[in-house]
């Protein structure tokens, strides 16, 4: 009998990763019982930190699931200047280079899940008294949150949305670190398992997480904190079509008052060093990475040898369709977060992750090392979508805090859904959010599909990425 492909690759990838990072030295419990890593509390902290570091891989949130592949297929860019991404923009998932990107998303995503499972199983074997200062709850809750986070994104990529197929088969929801095959669950079952993990994580974190318990504004955005878990629950409920619970979860994050809008003078300042392009006060969950500059070089920042625009460029006419005249003159997202790319005046690139001054020098550490994954505006967008009758109110809060005083005056649901999509484009280019919105609604078009036409039709089958062929064959999918 052939070994399940996921299990084999998870163990293989873990072993390969261990060669570089001892803190992820995890093995199946059947192979090594009581590994040294988990003999003390520091080992658990190291294993947890290893999960966050692994998430910054360029195959995941260090590129492909933020400003890279996911925004390419979300049609955030007018051009994708190298062949691999040009094929991806055309949804040629069978192209060898594109297939390589897709397979690595699957493999590295499940590798993180495997390591999270090892951590979870080992902490379940410990008494809470083994840990100091509530760290049992913190480590356990964060690991559950990461496992749910990764499963949710893999589900949103590799399984159909419920709008496309209510009875759709999902992905394997893996909750044990072993060689045993995990059968695929339905999309609904996967979402229930995501929410089960997040509910348990929230209960654990609510007892100890300073960001939840403190009356002060305690920053824990580099960790899967309580409000990050609740924000994820809002995402999962929305994907499930449970608007009531999505609204409640998003409102809890908003009403916590732990997160505030970035002041306009932090965006419109003339001092490059002070521009907070990653919106620090709004950050609910982010990854810390020393490699952001390297990861974006040539993609969003810097020029090729012929001085042409970086790979992920937009067109000024495409931007004009996102930022109409009534908003772009005052919208800080338009005036601050885009600059001309290379020598071609019609091409613009997002500066959100640049964090450089005019001399090319690094700016403040907290800006240049932050990779935001969940921010406050998304909670308002979720509220708008979950409560469409009051959507304009939520959208106007976002617009006001971005310098746009002209209110949304749309009244019909289709118009409001279109406006929500435009707000996602204005707010989340380079953050990997656009594809999910269009897929959730099974929209017959996806923004920017043809040149800068936001309404060009495309095949909705392209919303679902193909699983690796070996997984289909060996895992009997």
Instruction: Write the CATH architecture name.
Output: Alpha Horseshoe
Count of helical segments? Answer: 21
Widest β-sheet, arrangement of strands? 1-5-7-6
What general form does the structure show?
Answer: globular
The fraction of residues in strands falls at: 5-15%
Number of E strands? 8
- What is the H/E string? HHHEHHHEEHHHHHEHEHHHEEHEHHHHH
Q: How far apart lie the N and C ends? A: 15 Å
| Domain tally | 1
If you compute it from the alpha carbons, what radius of gyration comes out, rounded to the nearest whole angstrom? 22 Å
Largest sheet: 4 strands, antiparallel
CATH class: Mainly Alpha
Give the overall pLDDT as a whole number. Answer: 85
DSSP helix fraction: 40-55%
Q: Show unreliable segments.
A: 7-34, 448-452
Alpha-beta content class: alpha+beta
CATH T-level fold name: Serine Threonine Protein Phosphatase 5, Tetratricopeptide repeat
Task: Provide the fold topology.
Elements: H1 5-18, H2 41-55, H3 69-73, E1 79-80, H4 83-89, H5 96-124, H6 135-158, E2 169-172, E3 184-186, H7 187-206, H8 210-213, H9 226-240, H10 243-255, H11 264-267, E4 283-288, H12 292-296, E5 312-315, H13 316-322, H14 325-328, H15 332-336, E6 338-340, E7 347-350, H16 365-368, E8 370-375, H17 376-386, H18 391-401, H19 413-428, H20 434-440, H21 469-474
Antiparallel strand pairs: 1-5, 2-3, 4-8, 5-7, 6-7
Helix pairs in contact: 1-5, 2-5, 2-6, 5-6, 6-7, 6-9, 7-9, 9-10, 9-17, 10-17, 17-18, 17-19
């Amino acid at each position: 009998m052939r070994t399940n492909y996921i299990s084999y690759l998870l163990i293989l990838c873990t072993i390969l990763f261990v060669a570089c990072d001892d803190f992820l030295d995890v093995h199946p419990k059947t192979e090594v019982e009581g590994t040294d890593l988990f003999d003390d509390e520091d080992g658990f902290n190291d294993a947890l930190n290893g999960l966050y570091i692994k998430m910054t891989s360029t195959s995941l949130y260090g590129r492909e699931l933020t400003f890279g592949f996911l925004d390419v297929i979300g049609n955030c860019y007018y051009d994708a200047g190298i062949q691999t991404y040009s094929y991806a923009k055309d949804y040629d998932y069978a192209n060898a280079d594109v297939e390589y990107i897709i397979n690595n998303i699957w493999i590295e995503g499940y590798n993180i899940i495997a390591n999270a499972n090892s951590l979870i199983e080992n902490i379940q074997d410990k008494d809470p008294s083994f840990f100091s200062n509530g760290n049992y709850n913190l480590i356990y809750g964060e690991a559950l949150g990461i496992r749910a986070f990764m499963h949710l994104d893999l589900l949103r990529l590799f399984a159909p949305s419920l709008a496309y197929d209510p009875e759709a088969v999902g992905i394997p929801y893996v909750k044990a670190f072993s060689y045993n095959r995990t059968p695929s669950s339905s999309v609904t079952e996967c979402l229930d398992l995501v929410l089960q993990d997040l509910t348990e994580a929230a209960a654990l974190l609510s007892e100890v997480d300073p960001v939840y318990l403190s009356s002060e504004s305690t920053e824990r955005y580099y960790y899967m904190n309580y409000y990050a878990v609740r924000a994820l629950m809002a995402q999962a409920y929305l994907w499930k079509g449970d608007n009531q619970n999505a609204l409640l979860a998003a409102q809890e994050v908003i009403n916590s008052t732990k997160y505030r809008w970035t002041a306009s003078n932090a965006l419109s300042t003339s001092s490059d060093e002070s521009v907070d392009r990653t919106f620090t006060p709004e950050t609910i969950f982010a990854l810390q990475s020393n490699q952001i500059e390297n990861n974006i070089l040539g993609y969003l920042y810097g020029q090729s040898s012929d001085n042409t625009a970086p790979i992920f460029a937009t067109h000024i006419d495409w931007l004009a369709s996102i930022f109409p005249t009534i908003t772009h003159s005052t919208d800080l997202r338009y005036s601050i977060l885009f600059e001309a790319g290379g020598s071609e005046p019609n091409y613009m690139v997002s500066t959100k992750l640049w964090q450089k001054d005019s001399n090319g020098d690094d700016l403040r550490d907290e800006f240049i090392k932050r990779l935001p994954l969940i921010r406050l505006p998304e909670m308002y967008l979720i509220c708008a979508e979950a409560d469409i009758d009051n959507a304009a109110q939520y959208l106007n809060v976002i617009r006001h805090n971005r310098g746009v005083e002209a209110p949304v005056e749309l009244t019909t649901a289709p118009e409001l859904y279109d406006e929500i999509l435009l707000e996602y484009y204005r707010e989340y280019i380079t953050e990997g959010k656009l594809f999910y919105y269009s897929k959730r609604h099974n929209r017959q078009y996806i923004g920017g599909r043809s040149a800068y036409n936001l309404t060009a039709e495309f095949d909705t089958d392209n919303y679902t990425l193909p699983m690796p062929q070996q997984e289909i064959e060996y895992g009997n999918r």
